[in-house]
Write a structure and sequence with these properties.
alpha+beta; six-stranded mixed beta sheet; two-stranded antiparallel ribbon; 5 helices; about 30% helix; globular
Amino acid sequence: MLQFLFNFVREKTVNRKMEMNGKDHQKIQNFDDLDLSVQELIESAVQARKLAYCPYSNFAVGAALRTTSGEIIKGCNVENGAHTPSICAERTAIVKAVSEGHTSFEAVAVVAFQEDQFTSPCGVCRQVLSEFASKDIKVYISKPVPVRILCTSLYELLPYRFDSSRLKQNS
C-alpha cells in the first residue's frame, strides 16, 4: 500500500508543471537522470527536512551541503517564537560545516514543499553561501519526493553578490 501511495504521488508530481517564480524553468531534470552523488545529496536534504523544527510556520525545509572533500553536512530550519532568531536550513548546514572545519563547498541541495513551484534559498542564505563561494556552487532544488529537480547554481541565483573583494582592506 505504501509503495502504491509513493508511486501515485510520484506520478502526479511528474505530470504537474513545476515552476520557479511563476515560470516554467528550463533547468529541470528528472531525479533518476542525475548522477548518483547528486541523488545522495538530495536524499540527505530530504532526511534533514524531517528534523525541521517549525511549529509556527509548519514550513519544513532541509538542506545538504557537499564539501569539496566529499562530505555531506545536513541542516534543517529551526524556528523561534520571537521569529528573528529563526534560522534557515541552508544556514544551519553552513554553520555546522564551518564549525566542523569545512569552508569550501561544491554543491547544496534544498528540499521544501510548495504545491506548484520550487522553493529556492532566501536572499540571506544565498549571501551566506556566497561567503564561501570562491567558485560557483551547484544548487539542486527539490520537493520532498524527489522526482523533478531544479538544477541551477549560486552565481545564477545571486548574480551580483557582495563578496569580500568589495571591502577595503585599509581605510
